[in-house]
Amino acid sequence: EVQLVQSGGEVKKPGESLKISCKGFGYSFTSYWIAWVRQMPGKGLEWMGIIYPGDSDTRYSPSFQGQVTISADKSISTAYLQWSSLKASDTAMYYCARQIAAAGGDYFDYWGQGTLVTVSS
Amino acid sequence: QSVLTQPPSVSAAPGQKVTISCSGSSSNIGNNYVSWYQQLPGTAPKLLIYDNNKRPSGIPDRFSGSKSGTSATLGITGLQTGDEADYYCGTWDSSLSALVFGGGTKLTVL
Known about the structure:
The structure holds 2 protein chains of 2 kinds.
Chain A: E1 3-6, E2 10-12, E3 18-25, E4 33-39, E5 45-52, E6 57-60, E7 69-73, E8 78-83, E9 92-100, E10 107-111, E11 115-119
Parallel strand pairs in A: 2-11
Antiparallel strand pairs in A: 1-3, 3-8, 4-5, 4-9, 5-6, 7-8, 9-10, 9-11
Chain B: E1 9-12, E2 18-23, E3 35-39, E4 46-49, E5 63-68, E6 71-76, E7 85-93, E8 98-101, E9 105-109
């Protein structure tokens, strides 16, 4: 059974750094893209970027380029999303999802349970 | 402001049918496949439809998808109270080089 299991919720102060994780089970982790999706409180879904764990090829949404870093450690089937200096506006639920990337036909077939990040002084 | 436009809310009675629209442009829906996701309260999104009209294993045929030009539609028949959720459309945008979502539609089953 395919599963994406995310790390637990975090409460941080503005300016602090953070790295959250997403571990894949039940499939070849190196053969599928992993995406990160933000959902701010009461708002919709926003695609942040993707990584291909097989070769660490990484793409970012223009809206998130330079704001976060996506990485992966294929030896432990885990993808990461990290911030060097959090802002209050980073408060949101963050989902990882397996992205099926086909020409003209990208979609997410499996999702993690979400990691709630709260940034407050 | 989302790149794809969805109605904020729709409602219908149990057993009835509802449709949810998703409007875009030639840089997204017009030249790429559309997917749809259901997000029940307090849970992660779930894939309902991919490649415009295909259902993953386990998704009942009460859910259907279609696309025409730069718009897509999700249809749900035989509405149940358990269908109350937020529904999102998504597709690749070639101009933005990003996957984009609609703003979401809240379905109420009265």
